[in-house]
Design goal:
By secondary structure, this protein is an alpha+beta fold. Helices cover 32% and strands 19% of the residues.
């Protein structure tokens, strides 16, 4: 039967009036309007009781599993405090605090309902799978987060250090610049607090490193004194320090973009607060929603009170590096780095007798020389395996 421009309510009322006037049998009218007998009876009953002929909500009168207002308010408040934290991590934070935590799909619905989800936040919630070291302190990663202006007109240079295995943030310092002196101050503090790593991964810029043609930096030599090997990512390949790059992006997305810092003291207070949150409260997808603190423990290698003299083996030829960075050996000068000025190194010949000598600084090989060609073949540090030399 055509609708003739009627609304659904008008069509139902027309059916009821025709049925009550006995114009046709109820069965015939139901067939004419394309409804069942029980539906026809339902509309007649509603009409007689004065109820509306509109469709009623199918929502249940009682929803025992509905999230209570207090829990929803807690979720909303937590999201407002940490705008870039997603539903899964919010759920784990609430659980860790012993607070009611509905399913993360429910939390996601609450965020949607309160207008707290953006496309950017959804994209950022995609987990990343990265390689990691087997245990804490095998490798730390470090970098400077891009500097930014503060309200006092100065620029803040955040220095960050991350443990590769646990993602534990060891350092988040608001530095005035990116010079070696300030970096050493920060590292000396975290060495005293957490012990020493085996390796430090960083990029090729100052103060971490420099191009191999000009040798080593004073920061690298300073780390060698503590038995720490510096490794550098490939030039223009920031993905080598993926965890550090990700942390810096997270720091910007979750904290810096929402703040206006008065000065360094204000920035440092906020950085300290965020570092505690990141290490002890914020779940990490790569850690199966555990916090970094659950996987981190301090290094067994403690910061020594002073750097002790290194004793080389009897088969090692001892030389002292000049202040200019040159090593003199068999009447020929070889440039290593000014950072080694005044340091004592050892030279040991290759087993194949090819005229190649390895230059050792403490437990590291720092260069390879060709005596026949009188050139430095390589300046790349790695750990040297010796049986007799030891630290005394």
């Amino acid at each position: 039967m055509p609708w003739r421009g009627q609304s659904m309510e008008e069509r139902r009322e027309e059916f009821v009036r025709r049925a009550l006037s006995s114009e046709r049998s109820k069965s015939a009218l139901c067939r004419e309007y394309g409804i069942s007998r029980p539906t026809g009876d339902k509309w007649i009953k509603r009409f007689k009781s004065g109820e509306s002929m509109e469709n009623k909500s199918r929502a249940p009168f009682h929803t025992p599993n509905k999230t209570d207002a207090a829990t929803e308010s807690s979720i909303v408040a937590l999201r407002l405090k940490h705008p870039a934290i997603g539903a899964k991590k919010l759920k784990r934070i609430l659980e860790n605090k012993g607070e009611p935590a509905p399913a993360y799909s429910t939390i996601n619905a609450i965020l949607q309902r309160n207008g707290l989800i953006t496309k950017e936040a959804s994209a950022a919630a995609t987990p990343h799978i990265r390689f990691e070291k087997i245990s804490p302190n095998e490798m730390w990663q470090t970098d400077f987060k891009g500097h930014f202006a503060m309200k006092n007109g100065c620029r803040c240079h955040p220095l960050t250090v991350l443990d590769d295995h646990s993602r534990f943030c060891l350092c988040l310092d608001a530095r005035e610049n990116e010079r070696c002196e300030g970096v050493k101050e920060s590292f000396a503090r975290i060495f005293a607090q957490h012990g020493l790593p085996d390796t430090l991964l960083c990029d090729n810029g100052n103060p971490w490193g420099t191009v191999q043609s000009v040798g080593y930096t004073s920061f690298e030599v300073w780390l060698m004194d503590f038995g720490i090997l510096t490794k550098h990512g490939r030039i223009r390949h920031p993905q080598t320090q993926g965890k550090e790059e990700r942390f810096n992006a997270t720091l910007l997305r979750e904290r810096i973009r929402y703040r206006e810092y008065e000065g360094f003291a204000h920035a440092q207070r906020d950085f300290d607060e965020y570092r505690d949150f990141y290490n002890y409260e914020r779940p990490h997808h790569a850690l199966r929603l555990e916090t970094p603190s659950k996987r981190y423990s301090d290094s067994a290698r403690k910061l020594p009170q002073q750097v002790e003299e290194w004793v080389y083996g009897s088969d090692v030829c001892i030389r002292q590096i000049k202040s200019s960075g040159y090593l003199t050996f068999r009447g020929q000068g070889y440039f290593l780095s000014e950072a080694f000025g005044g340091k004592t190194v050892g030279l040991i010949e290759s087993d194949n007798g090819s005229g190649v000598f390895f230059v050792l600084y403490r437990q590291f090989c720092i260069a390879k020389l060709s005596i026949d060609d009188r050139v430095v073949l390589a300046r790349r540090a790695f750990r040297w395996k010796l049986e007799t030399p030891q630290n005394v």
